[in-house]
Give the backbone structure.
Amino acid sequence: MYSSNATSYSNYLSGEINVTVSEEVVELTTGVSQLLIYTTEPCYIKLNDNDNEIFLSGNMWMPLSLSVKTFSIKTVSGEAVAHWQGWYM
């Protein structure tokens, strides 16, 4: 679930998702050029259907400056909440 917002600098999408050890996929309505993500527990994220996983340590914001249309996320173990924002022009 996400929302679309506008600022004086650019537009952005934002949202949050409950995450478990099962991979959850987020499909954005528009591609973003920067993604900022915060997870409450350690997680793995994959961008744009890529098989390579990026480790997110949890309890800190992680900037990912890539063009992103979709991402999938899962926890290392247990449950977490992931908050994210993505900017586009």
